[in-house]
Structure to design on (406 residues):
């Protein structure tokens, strides 16, 4: 049953209590929360290699529909398009509660919920919102982000995938890389060059590309952990209707900047990978909790996590999370990735050789995956160095980088 706003409550505390109550009534606690029980994984990406991908995707869709029916779908999206019209803080509070429960991995829908759908709401037309946002909130559609290319990552504006206007439609050719969940997505938010002669930031246009269109090939990339969360995506004469162009021709760069800022604002600090309680329990079980250096490192990560959470609240209070030129999105992303990197290193210091050789003890070797995967977060969504450049320019007023370095 879908409660009205008075049931979910706009007050943050009430909203969170309602979310907790509903989640407790409708889901099981996450396995692995009790030491020695269930899956001991602390990785950051879904374990696609261990599960049936189609089953996992179907479970994610069903979960999105269930939470939408309960009034917890698309929390920051407008009510007109099936969302709840609430703030990013409500979203963070809900996610903190949901991460305690046994539900499908949020990585499957995060890009759609936090990046693509907000971009469609902001820059799309009425038909696009109706066709993609409502179904997206209900889990009928999943999304990926087709931005990076082999020679265009940090310097995204040098992208070469082209969209050419031919016989009344756009024809897309080229390649993307590192596309998270492309193998699960129904639509990809694509950046393509539509005017090779325009200054490079002006010649880019954004499209909402159906991933099942003829000419789209998705190839998984095998990670160092054995996982397969990312893909290469190839476009070979893919025909895209003009109705699926997001924003004006040549206006893709402004949309990109706004989308990347939302990406950096969604802190990856919920779930087992960010559980400082789990890390402290590990130190106890390994009889390292009385070691003063270990204690200092544990206190350090606990404090850093709290500071990141408080910084998010402060940014929200200042209402500048939507300011794509401001420093907060970059600051928050740096804080989160730095904290997770320190967590993995602390686990390594506690475990010693058991980090790299599987002894079979529950909750130990699992940190190997954490250490390897948290490095990826320092790259995805803009590298640490790029975030520091943004903070230097936007917050500290340092001179912009020389154009030769871009
Ligand atoms: C976990 C993960 C998920 C991802 N998901 C997606 C996705 O869904 N969709 C998508 O499109 N892409 C995705 N990516 C790709 C990601 O956006 C790029 O990898 C990232 O932007 C960096 O680009 P690059 O790999 O080309 O590295 P490069 O840009 O070549 O950078 C190489 C090194 O040079 C440094 N560097 C580059 N320019 C500067 C500069 N101006 N100043 C200082 N240092 C600099 C970088 O910091 C880095 O250390 C993902 C990547 C990861 C790791």
């Amino acid at each position: 049953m879908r409660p009205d706003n008075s049931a979910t409550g706009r007050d943050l505390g009430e909203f969170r209590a309602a979310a907790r109550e509903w989640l407790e009534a409708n889901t099981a606690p996450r396995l692995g929360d009790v030491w020695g029980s269930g899956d001991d994984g602390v990785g950051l990406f879904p374990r696609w290699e261990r599960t049936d991908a189609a089953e996992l995707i179907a479970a994610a869709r069903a979960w999105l529909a269930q939470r939408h029916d309960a009034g917890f779908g698309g929390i920051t999206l407008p009510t007109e398009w099936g969302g709840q019209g609430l703030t990013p803080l409500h979203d963070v509070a809900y996610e903190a509660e949901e991460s305690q429960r046994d539900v499908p991995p949020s990585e499957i829908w995060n890009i759609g919920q936090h990046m693509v759908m907000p971009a469609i709401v902001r820059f799309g037309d009425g038909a696009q919102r109706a066709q993609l946002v409502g179904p997206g909130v209900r889990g009928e559609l999943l999304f990926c982000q087709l931005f990076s290319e082999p020679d265009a990552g940090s310097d995204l504006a040098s992208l070469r995938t082209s969209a050419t206007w031919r016989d009344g439609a756009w024809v897309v050719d080229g390649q993307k890389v590192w596309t998270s969940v492309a193998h699960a997505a129904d639509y990809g938010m694509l950046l393509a060059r539509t005017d090779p002669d325009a200054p490079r930031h002006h010649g880019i246009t954004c499209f909402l590309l159906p991933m099942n269109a003829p000419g789209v090939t998705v190839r998984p990339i095998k990670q160092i952990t054995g996982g397969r969360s990312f893909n290469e995506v190839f476009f070979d004469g893919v025909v895209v209707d003009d109705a699926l162009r997001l924003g004006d021709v040549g206006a893709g760069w402004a949309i990109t900047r706004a989308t990347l800022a939302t990406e950096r604002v969604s802190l990856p600090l919920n779930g087992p990978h960010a559980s400082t309680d789990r890390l402290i329990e590990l130190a106890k079980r390994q009889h390292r909790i009385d070691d003063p250096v270990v204690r200092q490192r544990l206190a350090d990560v606990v404090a850093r996590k709290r500071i990141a959470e408080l910084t998010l609240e402060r940014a929200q209070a200042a209402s500048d999370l939507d300011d794509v030129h401001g420093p907060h999105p970059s600051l928050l992303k740096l804080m989160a990735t730095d904290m997770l990197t320190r967590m993995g290193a602390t686990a390594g210091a506690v475990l010693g050789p058991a980090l790299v050789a599987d002894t079979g003890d529950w909750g130990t070797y699992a940190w190997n995956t954490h250490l390897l995967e948290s490095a990826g977060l320092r790259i995805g969504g803009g590298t640490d160095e790029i975030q520091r450049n943004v903070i230097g320019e936007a917050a500290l007023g340092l001179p912009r980088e020389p154009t030769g370095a871009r």
User: Anything to note?
Assistant: Confidence is low (pLDDT under 50) at residues 1-8.
